[in-house]
Every structure is written in C-alpha cells, then in structure tokens.
Design goal:
Layout: H1 3-9, H2 12-32, H3 34-44, H4 57-76, H5 80-105, H6 114-144, H7 161-170, H8 173-176, H9 193-196, H10 206-231, H11 243-272, H12 274-277, H13 285-296, H14 305-329
Helix pairs in contact: 2-5, 2-14, 3-4, 3-14, 5-6, 6-7, 6-10, 10-11, 11-14
C-alpha cells in the first residue's frame, strides 16, 4: 500500500466517514429483521409465554402472530429504539476498527491471509462490544418483557429505554443490606459487588459475549474477505463489486458466523436476563451452562437457531452490502 494511502486511512476524515458508513449499515440491517430479533430473544431467554413456540419454523411465525395480536406492530418493534441507539455506535466502531486493523495487518493484497482476516474481525468485534454492551443489555431487557410477565392485577406497560435502565440499576440493592443468612447458598461474588461497582449491573453476560464475539466476528470477516478474494476478480474485491455480489457473500458469511457462535449467544441471553430472576447476584458461566444442559441437553444451546438463520443471514447480507455502498458514496 502506498504511503499516502496509509496516511489517508488514518486521517480523521477517513475514520469519521468509515464510522458513519458502518453505523448506517448496521441500522438499516437491524431494522429489516427487528421483528425476528425480538422473537429470537424471547426464545433464547426461555420466556415462559413463548417457550411453547420454540424450536420450529412455524412456531416462529405463531409467536410473531401472538405478539402482533396482543400489542400490534409496535409490539414487534419493542426494544428496537434501544437497538438503534446501540447498533449505530456498535456497527460504526466495528467497521471503523476493521478498516484500521485491516490496514495494519494486511497492508497489501499479498499479506492477506485467513488468520489475519480472522484476527482483524475478532479484534474489531471485541472493540465494539466493549464500548456498547450496556446498550445491548437494555435492549434485551426491553424485548424480554411481555404482557403475561407483568403482575396479573396490573395493566401491561411497554418498557421504555429509561425505565429498563432504571430497573437494571436498582437490581441487587436489597441484598446489599441483607444479613448473611439471607444470602443465596449458591456460589456468588460478595453481595455488595453491585453496590461498590454499579456499572457491573450493565455488564451481565459480558464475559460470554466477549468469548462469543471472537468466533462470530472473526468468522464473519474471514468468510467475507476469503470469498471476495476468491470470487471477485481484483480490483473488484477492493470495493467495486455489485450489490448482488455483496448481498450473496454477506449472507454466506452470516450463516457461517451464526453456526460457529450460537451456543455462546444462548448462554449470553440467559445471563443478560438473569437480573429479572436473580436480581441479587451475578449469574456465572458454569451455573448458566449447567442450567441449560439440565433442562434441554445439548439442544438447549441451539434453541432458536432456525430463527437465528432467518434473522442473521439477511441482516449480515444487508449490513455488508450497505457498508460497501456507503463506502463507495463516501469515497473510501
């Protein structure tokens, strides 16, 4: 890569345009699959009102029908406001970081290897998760709430972003002042950890998320780079490909990434909604994994995978296609 090209990639203008292109791509892609995203969260987190639908394609559409019947179209988009607040910075940071890391690890076409593609994708995914995870947790809580989950004697109120954030912040407070005899006998950190570090309430499931984003983002960008290099003649693979090609390669990348990382995603969802069932303490990896295995065996780690494909494949395809389209428009 010429020296002036490397300098341009690291300029503030390039970084800003790169981040904007990624943010727009993420928002468009998430909006396309928002109803499926909510149903998948309900399945993964084993919401009692929708557990009966999990595991089949028909169950997915029956769940969508029930949500629509109870709450209208707005019910299908419940939690989407938090999604957009999260996805713009998440996608912006992810694609912007990938642009920069790609320039460092693979400055020339000859230096592009599958190992470096995977590393660039994994590092960009980890960077974006680190900065945006609290917004993801709030979104999941908003999507997890259903009418029947509320107290029967009280009317159902659709949770707002601020009310969900306040609920998460208040979790764990009662146990901080409880006597030792009232604490859970299960292994757990000191009860006052949420009092001493309130920010940790917004990072439930963070460790499993980091572990899951490595194979997900790494595989996604690896497949994206590998397929473009093999299927698109140079210099098309550097940014002049057609939208159809971008959509197709993005779809395959999304399917592979989803397959590799899905068990991590199920564990993460259970840990994220753990504050609803166990607000007093931090649910650990082993405890969550044992709970899933004890109820459903190995199949429990793939509950909702069909809807995962139905959501992730078009989402990833649209995300990559819009990202490339924005890059062309912005002169990247």
């Amino acid at each position: 890569m010429p020296a002036h090209a490397s300098q341009d990639r690291q300029s503030l203008s390039y970084i800003a345009r790169s981040g904007f292109a990624g943010g727009v791509a993420g928002c468009v892609a998430k909006t396309v699959v928002a109803p499926l995203d909510r149903v998948k969260i309900l399945f993964q987190a084993s919401n009692p009102d929708f557990r009966k639908y999990a595991g089949t394609w028909s169950g997915t559409f029956r769940a969508i029908s029930q949500i629509y019947g109870e709450n209208g179209f707005r019910g299908l988009l419940q939690g989407h406001s938090a999604t957009l607040l999260r996805i713009f910075p998440y996608a912006a940071i992810k694609f912007m970081a990938y642009d920069q890391i790609e320039g460092l690890l693979m400055p020339t076409r000859e230096s592009q290897t599958n190992t470096r593609r995977f590393a660039a994708g994994a590092l960009s995914g980890m960077t974006s998760v680190l900065f945006t995870y609290p917004l993801e947790l709030i979104r999941v809580r908003m999507a997890f709430s259903t009418r029947n989950a509320a107290r029967p004697s009280e009317p159902y109120h659709r949770p707002s972003f601020l009310s969900s954030m306040r609920q998460i912040y208040r979790e764990g407070a009662p146990l901080a002042n409880a006597s030792p005899s009232a604490s859970s006998s299960s292994p757990a950190p000191h009860p006052s950890i949420f009092t001493r570090f309130p920010i940790l309430k917004f990072y439930r499931g963070f460790t499993v998320t980091i572990a899951g984003i490595i194979p997900y983002a790494g595989t996604s960008f690896l497949a994206w780079g590998f397929l473009r290099a093999r299927l698109l003649p140079y210099p098309k693979s550097k940014g002049a490909s057609t939208p159809i090609a971008d959509l197709s390669i993005g779809a395959v990348s999304g399917a592979l990434a989803q397959t590799v990382s899905y068990p991590f995603e199920v564990v993460r969802r259970r840990m994220q909604v753990g504050g609803v069932t166990r607000p007093d303490r931090w649910l650990r990896w082993g405890e969550t994994v044992r709970g899933i295995w004890g109820v459903s065996g190995w199949r429990g780690f793939y509950v909702g995978l069909t809807i995962g494909y139905l959501k992730v494949v078009p989402m990833t395809a649209v995300s990559y296609a819009v990202w490339q389209w924005q890059r062309r428009i912005l002169g990247l």
